[in-house]
Amino acid sequence: MPDGGGYSSVQKALPQALQAGLQRGRGAVSNHTPRFERAVVEAFDDGWASLTEDMPSLRTTLTREAAKSALTYNDSPDLGFDRSINPYRGCEHGCVYCYARPSHAYLGLSPGLDFETRLMFKPDLPEILARELSRPGYLVKPVALGSNTDPYQPVERTEGLTRRVLEVLERFAHPVTIVTKSAGVLRDADILARMAQRNLVRVCLSITTLDAKLARAMEPRAASPLRRLEAVRALSAQGIPVAVLAAPMIPGINDTELERILEASARAGATSAGYVLLRLPLELRQIFEEWLTVHYPERAARVLALVRQTRGGKLYDARFGQRQKGEGPYAELLAQRFALAIRRLGLDRREGGTSRLDCSQFNPRADSRQLELL
Q: What average pLDDT does the segment 12-24 reach?
């Protein structure tokens, strides 16, 4: 859909196929051709109500991916880390707002329903990570686990890749931060508690809303808001530092909940917090617009108008320093509300921050296989 200044009549009259194509437990309402493909596939009404028939249910498929490296490096000034690990590509949580969706186009897959149903996993990732940490000259800094897709999405229950990665990081005494919106992180509380005693870990729980109905619509297979708050409480009780991310804040959808999310998180034991304004890069603009039209048709125009106010009249501004927080009166007010809330709730403490994790304990010779080189 064009990134214009208004909500066009074409957008108001989205095909009934979007409604009929809704998949139970899925976030996106379409599966448009990825941007790198030369052939574009479009739905066509053959006169037999083919566009209004229910789509067959989509099952999650898992494909093995041969990983060349475990660590991915970045030099973005907007991020608080310079390296990350992602055990999975794609994410079954199906969050309609996920900024990682466009990355699926690099695999020749759609950032829409493909992103949440056709997943890739890297079974040899822990072994590759151990080799990289053992290399001479490796300089240790905290690594972000799950910076692109959630390391505790449902397939982790059977694959256990994230746990194996944590076992390697614990063995090497390598500091790590984890971002998730899953209560599944509690399955690894034993490892996390041991690492927390050595100041080697920080867990960030993403809590986007306290409204269970809204959560089911925009992040259908993620843990409920209540379960995420319970995870904050359980981790905190075991001495594991927990931050909460009210992210993303979506104008006209969940922005009024900002203070309530932070208050509930502070009561549960979180010690710090952050937020991010809605980001809509590349195909995500169309995916989000379609979702709005289907789930919130009466306020879609208003929501998109507010988003444009924060992005210089567009739906997205990719400039460093702008893409996370936006600009303009609305974005400034949101920033002020957040700053006042975390100060009042004591969530502006930094003792659990990434920069405070201990890098001095790192042991590059932790893997006994290093002796084979002698």
A: 53
